[in-house]
Structure formats: C-alpha cells, structure tokens
Amino acid sequence: MTVDWPSAESSLMGNAWVCSRANDHVNMLCDSIGVRWGGSEGERRAAEYIRSRFEEYGLQETSTEEFEVDTWEATSSSISIDGEDDRILDVRPSLFCPSVTATAPIVDVGFGMAHEVGPLTGRLDGAIALISGAYEPFSPPESLTIRLERLATLGVVACITPYAAGGRRTSHGHAGDWRDDDPNTVSLPLVHTSREDGALLARRAASGATVTLQVDSQRTTATSRNVMGDLAGDIWPDEWLVLGAHHDTTVDSPGANDNASGSTVVLEVARLLAQLKREQGIGPGRSIRFVTFGSEEQGLQGSAAYVERHYGPDPMPRLMVNLDELGTGSMKGVVLQFPELRPLIQKELDAMGEGLKCHVLAQMDATGDGFPFARKGIQAAMLWRWRFVGRHPDVAFGHSSSDTVDKVRIRELKEYAGFLARLMLRVSHTTPEEWPQEPLDTVEIKARIAQERGSVVRTM
Ligand SMILES: [Zn+2]
User: Fold this and answer.
1) What is the C-alpha separation between 251 and 241, in angstroms, rounded?
2) pLDDT tens digit string along 171-211?
3) 325 C-alpha vs ligand 1 centroid, how far in Å?
4) What is the predicted pLDDT for the residue at 2?
5) How far is the CA of 259 from the centre of ligand 1 (A)?
6) CA of 397 to the centre of ligand 1 (A)
C-alpha cells in the first residue's frame, strides 16, 4: 500500500486545526473533573471520560485496566518557630513524606553538598535542615535524593526546602529517586516552604532558633486505572507502536500542563488517525495502541503495571512515545532514550518538512512513563519541548493548584496533535528492514540504571 502523503498529511493537519477537540478535553479534565490523584474519584472519572472518547472515535479493544496503587495522603502539616507562636509558615509536605513531629534546632546546610555539611557535622545530629532543592552551581550536580541521604546518615531528622520563585508559592516535590524499585520509601521527611519563609528560616537558623515541624500522613492502597484503545495496522498488524500519556495529577492540582495537555494530544491523535482511516481508507501500516496511564505522580505505577501486564504475553512494541507537559513549549522534535532509531525517526521528521529534530538522551530518564518501557528493553521516546530553549514560563506552576487551564496554549496542542498524527502514521509505514534487528539488552540497561543512580538527568 502506498500512501498519498500530501493528501493524508493535509487532512490530518486541517482536521487537527479546524475540528480540534483539544479545548473540550482540557476543560473536561481540569475544570469539570479537576484533581486526578492516582486512586481518587477524579482519576476514575478521567479514565472513564478517556475510555468513552476512545470508543466514540472508533478505536478497537478499548478497555480500562485496574491496578492497585501504593498511595499516600497528608492530613495535616505545619512549621513554626519556637517563641513566634502567632506566625504561620507556608508548608507543603513532599509527596510520600512520612509522618514526623520534631522540635529541633534548624541548621542551614546550603545545597547539602559534602563540602558544605562537612564543617556542620557536629550540629546536624537531631537537627532539622534547611536545604536548597536547586543544584549547587559550582560542582557536578547531585540529586536531592543523594543529598537527603547524606543528611540522614548524619542524624538530621527532617528537611525543609524553599521554593525558588517568590510570591509565597510552593509545589509538590518528591524525595525519592525514581530509578529505585521502591522510590516512595524515602530517607527523610521533606517539606516545602515558600521562598519568603525559607529566607525567614535562614535568618532564624543564623541566630540559633529552634523550630517545630509536624506532618501527619498515611500510606494506603487504592484502585487506579490505565485506559487503552487500538487502531489495527493494515500491513503489519502484529507490530505495534504505542502513544501514551498520564492522566493523573498531584494531590491538589488540576494538572493542565501536567498532564491534561499530553492526555488531550493522545485523544486527538487517536481521533485524527481513526477518522483518516474511516473516511479516506488511509490506515497505519503497523498497529497503534493509545494508552493513558494512572498514578504517574506516585512513581510511574500505572505505566509500570501496564508494561508488566502486557509485555511478555503480548509482543513488545517497536516504539513507545510518551507525552508529558506539552504546555511547556511548542514541539521541537523527538528525544529517544536509545540511539538505534535516530536515523529512522530523523528521516521521517525531515520528510514532514517542519524543521523537527531527533535527539538521544545521554542518561536513562526515570522521570516519565517512558521509563518502565525503556527498562523492559523497549525503544522509548519523549518530545523535545522543554530542554534548552523556548520554554514557556508557565511550566513553573506545575505540581500545585496553579497548574490551571490558562497555562496551556490550545493552539500549540493542535500543532502537537497534527505533527504527532503525521509522525505516527509515517513511522507505522516504514519497512521492517529499516528497524534494528537486535533486541536491546535488558541486563545492560539495568546495570546502566544502577550505575546512574543519583546522577542528575538533564531533561529539565
Ligand atoms: Zn507529568
């Protein structure tokens, strides 16, 4: 089958632009449903909405797969300075922060690097540390996880990180390293405060103050969901491409950029390709599976459950493309986890004539739903949209209640949908000879992940 590319691609772009449903999806997910923390009622409603859309668009084998999520809830948290009882400090516990009640001297450890904590050693046992979550600019960057582990071994009982931007803002971070098997069991309780209250705590630390820090939280289990639907390939129906995105959010965020944007584009690409096949008889060569994952923010639990359930019994897909935080900037290209597919993807991007580039990550990226695929030896890719240049400042509102619909540009989502529909269709029609014949070595991949633990992955 030869595809009339100008006809197919102008249909996809025209449909993506003029008949877009992106605005409906973003509004439904963020405004009508709202917070979609994995295992919550909001997340269940989002999954139901996405499943209904997959059915409406005519995907085959649409289904919702439940899995048990290891989840977390904080019922109260506070920071107070002893002797200043009327002052209420900004506080937000990190995700999976364990319960803690401590009254202790506060010590400013800077970035918590070895050269900074060395001279403080005698003062850290039993202390609460004030630590910058940013990277110390004059040394090779060290992850916050590693710096917290260092402080834990020196006897620190809890840590406070101020938010970098001003305006009394805070956002949810995570103390664990997602390359670990159990990233949610963390070395220390970590809470966030605003830049303003962080500066106040630094002043009080200098004068030897004692602070009281309290978090009440529970780890529980709940039911979370992945949603999927298929578009069968016309030429190689047993070969698969996967397009995925997570539909969940952090605990109090409407998650517009993170990640109604990506879920919306998965829905739009499904609609565009299904319609092209139905109305013009132009279908994908390989089969395409569309998936949205639950519980990404709880340590990639949805994509991990999906990979575990499907790959082994089902054949491994040729490629998985993960969409996350597409409100970050316009599409610039594709970033592969492994180098093998670079010539194939770059050739298709060149054929599209949009000036898009294909790059390869130097490290294993465990910060998104491509990771469980890559760990399993599946070619994984994300989009190049937030590295280096052209990043919208609105991304700074992530993991908080400020990640609202005004932070995404619908016009850019339309462009993503059109570009990705074209790219997925093109890649689905490349001949089997263009693909690497050798499978990826999962033993080598696991060794690489272990060796890179604690290193800072340059995706931000
Ligand atoms: Zn995300």
Assistant:
1) 31
2) 999 999 999 989 999 999 999 999 999 999 999 999 999 99
3) 6
4) 84
5) 5
6) 12
Distance of CA 248 from the midpoint of ligand 1 (Å): 8
- Rounded CA-CA distance 399/176 in Å is 16
The per-residue pLDDT for 393 is: 82
pLDDT value, residue 149: 97
Instruction: Report CA(407)–ligand 1 centroid distance (Å).
Output: 14
Give 345 Cα–ligand 1 centroid separation in angstroms: 24
Q: Letter for the amino acid at 273?
A: L
How far is the centre of ligand 1, averaged over its atoms, from the C-alpha of 405 (Å)?
15
Q: Give tens-digit pLDDT for 110-135.
A: 999 999 999 998 999 999 999 999 99
Rounded to an integer, what distance in angstroms lies between the CA atom of residue 458 and that of residue 323?
17
Torsion, Cα of 348, 351, 355, 361 (10° steps) = 10
Residue in the structure block whose two tokens are 């944007």: 261
198's CB contacts (< 8 A; 6+ apart) are 130, 160, 161, 162, 163
In a 3-state reduction of DSSP, which class is residue 25? helix
Query: 257 alpha carbon to ligand 1 midpoint, in Å?
Result: 8
pLDDT at residue 188 in the model: 96
For residue 126, the Cα-to-chain-centroid distance in whole angstroms is 34
Span from the CA of 297 to the centroid of ligand 1 (angstroms): 7
Q: Which one, of 322, 349, 351, 347, lies nearest residue 333 by Cα?
A: 349
Q: Residue 183's Cα: distance from chain center in Å?
A: 14
For residue 411, report the distance from its CA to the centre of ligand 1, in Å.
Answer: 20
Centroid of ligand 1 to alpha carbon of 81 (angstroms): 34
pTM for the whole structure: 0.96
- Alpha-carbon gap, residue 47 to 38, rounded angstroms: 11
pLDDT for 309 equals: 96
pLDDT of residue 121: 85
* Segments in the chain below pLDDT 70: 1, 385-389, 459-460
Domains of the chain: 5-71+222-451 (3.40.630.10), 83-208 (3.50.30.30)
Where do we find the tokens 């978090």?
215
**Cβ of 251: how many Cβ atoms within 10 Å?**
22
Half-sphere exposure of 154 (CA within 13 A, CB side): 26
Q: Rounded to the nearest 10 degrees, what angle do helices 5-18 and 410-428 cross at?
A: 150
Between the CA of 166 and the centroid of ligand 1 the distance, in Å, is 23
Report how far ligand 1's centroid is from the alpha carbon of 87 (Å). 34
Quote the pLDDT of residue 459: 59
Q: What is the dihedral angle through the alpha carbons of 401, 404, 408, 409, rounded to the nearest 10 degrees? A: -160
* End-to-end Cα distance, the chain: 41
* C-beta of residue 328 within 8 angstroms of C-beta of residue 395: yes
